[in-house]
Design brief:
single chain, 347 residues, alpha/beta, Rossmann fold, CoA-Trfase_III_dom_1_sf, transferase, Carnitine dehydratase, CoA-Trfase_fam_III
Length: 347
């Protein structure tokens, strides 16, 4: 994306993450920050760096004439603008395509909001959206309370979706307004669960250990030491697991096919739990992975990072961060440190 200039007027996560993904691909990203800076600067340097490496920072108070003049100047030479703020703030600060079209009719303006540009200003933080879209209700043990994932799934997903929408509109050669709402992104990711309800009236239910709705066995399992995630869909994989685990044929004779296993979920899971108690999580992983069985011992983040050193990059400024997940033949991202507030100009 060398030569593509992107403006970002974002805070915290969704907008900054979207523009960082594009920066990693070679775009020149300029953050337009208020005099107090992106709110994530107040969280901590490492937090801010994880979402803003390699960008430029221009301070502009968009509530003033001078700030608006600077915005219009930047917009005239940019390909796109990403913003994640309340809809009323986006309009008030002139961060829509309608407001910026006089300065650059080919500008792509991407607005990330909670519920849409015309849906009002209801608070829409990541956890709020997970609660509002059914994600929290789907997560956790059946008899337990709703549960939130341990990371910001809605914000990150919305950021990736916004980056895709921005690229699609740039490729079209037209300027215009692109909208991405956190609510719509999370509902879209409930694809097959929503389809089952909309077309068959089937409401999703929670299963123990996060088990899959259709595939059995596909969930977390306890072992002699630690937990594993195992995901068996093919009958061949099932037979391979049964043989390696030493399960007597008579214990599994009633469910040789995927359909049989789905119809006998509790019995199948009981058989698997008994078998997995014979070895540790890492032991089962070492035994089953070479045979093509989808399995992984549950790891901590430090363990996962230690086993994937190629995912960690030096961004400069003393920061080690997770690099771009997009690998392109012949292209190597150039990672830079996060900018100081107003490092590239003020208005």
């Amino acid at each position: 994306m060398a030569g593509i200039r992107i403006l970002e007027a974002g805070h915290i996560l969704a907008g900054p993450y979207a523009s960082m993904v594009l920066s990693d691909l070679g775009a020149e990203v300029t953050k337009i920050e208020p005099p107090t800076g992106d709110m994530s600067r107040q969280v901590g340097e490492a937090y801010f760096a994880s979402l803003n490496r390699g960008k430029r920072s221009v301070v502009a108070d968009l509530t003033t004439r001078e700030g608006q003049d600077r915005l219009h100047e930047l917009a005239a030479g940019a390909h796109a603008l990403i913003v994640n703020q309340r809809p009323s703030a986006i309009r008030k600060l002139g961060l829509t395509y309608e407001a910026l079209r006089p300065y650059n009719e080919r500008l792509v303006c991407v607005a990330i909001t909670g519920y849409g540009l015309r849906a009002g200003d209801d608070p829409a933080f990541d956890y709020i959206i997970q609660a509002a879209t059914g994600v929290a209700a789907l997560t956790g043990e059946p008899a337990g309370p709703p549960t939130l994932p341990g990371y910001t799934a809605a914000d990150n997903s919305a950021g990736l979706t916004a980056a895709l929408g921005l690229l699609a509109q740039i490729v079209s050669g037209r300027g215009g307004q692109v909208e991405v709402s956190l609510r719509d992104v999370m509902l879209s990711q409930l694809n097959y669960k929503a389809s089952a309800y909309l077309n068959e009236g089937t409401e999703p239910v929670r299963h123990p250990f996060g088990a899959h709705s259709y595939y059995v066995p596909a969930q977390l399992f306890p072992t002699a030491d630690g937990f594993v995630a195992m995901f068996l869909t093919h009958d061949r994989s099932w037979r391979t697991f049964v043989a390696e685990a030493g399960i007597p044929p008579e214990e599994v004779a009633a469910f040789p096919t995927m359909a049989d296993r789905a119809a006998n979920r509790e019995k199948v899971v009981a058989v698997v739990i008994r078998a997995l108690a014979a070895d540790t999580a890492r032991g089962w992983e070492a035994r089953l992975r070479p045979q093509g069985i989808p399995i992984a011992a549950v790891r901590t983040l430090p363990d996962a990072l230690a086993e994937a050193p190629e995912a960690v990059v030096d961004a400069g400024g003393g920061f080690r961060l997770i690099g771009s997940p997009i690998r392109v033949d012949g292209y190597e991202p150039s990672y830079g440190p996060p900018p100081a507030l107003g490092e590239h100009g003020t208005a």
